[in-house]
Amino acid sequence: MKRGRPAHSIIRENIAEILAVSGPAYGYQIHRWYCELFAPCTRENIYYNLRKGVSLKEFELVEVRQEKGDYSWGAIVEKKYYKLGSVSPKGDKRVREFFDKMPKKL
């Protein structure tokens, strides 16, 4: 019997579905969409699965941006943008419908 955590994760599969439709996105944004589409989970769980997905080459870290703003912890936030890597999503219909209904930014 194998020991440790299994390499398979439903959360990572759902994140892959989101990234396949949305394109590159940062962790907090992915968490918000995830909680609207699927069963709510913690932000740390999303961040863990993003890091694990990068190590398994399921996701790619596109860029790291430092953006200025007025936040409770300071004036700068670091956003890591992820995109779909080598994993192929199943094509969940409700994810596609969710993003089709979302207003487009100009």
CA-atom Rg in angstroms:
15 Å
Largest sheet: 3 strands, antiparallel
Q: What is the general shape? A: globular
Query: What structural class do you assign from the helix and strand content?
Result: alpha+beta
Helix content: 40-55%
Task: Give the percentage of residues in beta strands.
Answer: 15-25%
Give the N-terminus to C-terminus distance in angstroms.
Answer: 53 Å
Strand order of the largest sheet: 1-3-2
Per DSSP E runs of 2 or more residues, the count of β-strands stands at 3
Show unreliable segments: none
List the helices and strands in order.
HEHHEEH
Q: Count of DSSP helices?
A: 4
Mean pLDDT: 91
How is this structure best described in words?
With 106 residues, this protein is α+β, with helices and mostly antiparallel strands. It is built from four helices and three strands. The protein has a three-stranded antiparallel sheet. A hairpin with a 2-residue loop joins strand 2 and strand 3 (74-84). Helix 2 packs across helix 3. It is globular. It starts with 9 loop residues before the first helix and ends in a 5-residue tail after the last helix.
Q: Quick gist of this model?
A:
This protein is an alpha+beta fold. Helices cover 43% and strands 25% of the residues.
Topology:
Elements: H1 10-22, E1 25-26, H2 27-37, H3 43-55, E2 59-71, E3 74-84, H4 93-101
Antiparallel strand pairs: 1-3, 2-3
Tags for this model:
106 residues; alpha+beta; 43% helix; globular; 3-stranded antiparallel sheet
